[in-house]
Amino acid sequence: MGLQAVIDWFLPKEDHFFTFLERQATLAEECATALLRFRDTNVTAEEVREAVQVIEHTADGVLYEMEDALARTFVTPLDREDLHLLATEMDDIIDMMNHAARVCVLYGVERPTAPMVSLMETLEKCSSALESAMPELRKRRYPKLIEHSRTLRALEKEGDTVFRAAVSDLFHDDAVEAKVLLREKEVLDALEDAIDRFDRVAHTLRNLAVKHG
């Protein structure tokens, strides 16, 4: 038995921190799924915003619970700074998806463009990968965690490619009115920002895997 395993055996099992993180990952997946419903012709931007807002409020509650538990717990299964960083980064993902939904309503987007749908689909893939990755942290399966972090980073790069191509097309198309360009660019920015937050989480997961593996 290795030294870390001996230490883990003697320390109290505060597994509820992993439960908080896994719950956040599940809420991120629910949020991305709710956002992706905008591609359905019978779903309005207002309906999407309302659904995403409910999930975002629930996620805030999970973060507050975890912060309270961190403040009350002397011994944590991972460094409390690492736990808090990961929790806040996942909360940021949900906040940014909520922001994207609000922007769609604010700028009067009646139907998402093909690039918008593509970025929403990437968000759904990222959130699904994150939900699969998070239980590996509880199990201390660090090689698996690194694999999932690579998947997230690859998806983020795919999103970047779609985003850059979409913005380039907007600015090179003389037929696009200024108001339309501004509206579509703002939505694309919001969706791309949400995808970027997954890359930050991937970086944190990889660092945790290297630190504890």
Per DSSP E runs of 2 or more residues, the count of β-strands stands at 0
Mean pLDDT: 92
Order of helices and strands: HHHHHHH
The total number of structural domains is: 1
Given the structure, what is the number of helices? 7
The SS-based structural class is mainly alpha
Written description of the protein model:
The longest helix has 35 residues, at 178-212. The protein is built from seven helices and no strands. The chain has one domain (12-212): Phosphate transport system protein phou homolog 2, domain 2 (Methane Monooxygenase Hydroxylase, Chain G, domain 1). It has helices at 3-10, 16-36, 45-72, 80-106, 114-139, 142-172, 178-212. The mean pLDDT is 92. With 213 residues, the chain is mainly α. The protein starts with a helix and ends with a helix. Helix 2 (16-36) runs antiparallel to helix 3 (45-72).
Quick structural overview:
With 213 residues, the chain is an all-alpha fold. Helix content is 83%, strand content 0%.
List strands and helices in order, with pairings.
Elements: H1 3-10, H2 16-36, H3 45-72, H4 80-106, H5 114-139, H6 142-172, H7 178-212
Helix pairs in contact: 2-3, 2-4, 2-5, 3-4, 4-7, 5-6, 5-7, 6-7
Main attributes of the structure:
mainly alpha; 213 residues; 7 helices; Methane Monooxygenase Hydroxylase, Chain G, domain 1; single chain
